[in-house]
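Lay summary. Proteins are chains of building blocks that fold into shapes, and those shapes determine what they do. In this project we predict the shape from the chain. Here is one chain we studied, written as its sequence of building blocks.
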Amino acid sequence: MLHLMLMAAVGSTTLPPVVIEDQDRIEVAYDALAAGEAQAAIAALEAERDRNPGEPAVLINLGSAYFQAGRYEDARLAFEAARTSSTRYELELADGSWADSRMIAQAALQRLSPELLASR
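And here is the predicted shape, written in a compact code that computers can read:
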């Protein structure tokens, strides 16, 4: 059993980290995101997205990495892709509650909206 920590930081607030259980190793670049190393996270997550298209965990963190890099439109597209992905599962939040991957992506989109408006 593999536990992956997802980081969905958007704006001055963050979504709580979530844990997913998965049999296969999926690169979610949590350490790079947590360290504020957006470019390293983007490189790793874009490569993982190519291997696992539509994987919500990857798309959510890719959106977070794009956001850290100031690439707000790319962030929006990644969160939207996670929200509409045919892959869907429940993620355990840090507080022990559970949330649907689509709901996490939707929350990230809502928190991203003010940043997008300010950048236009």
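What the prediction tells us: The radius of gyration is 13 Å.
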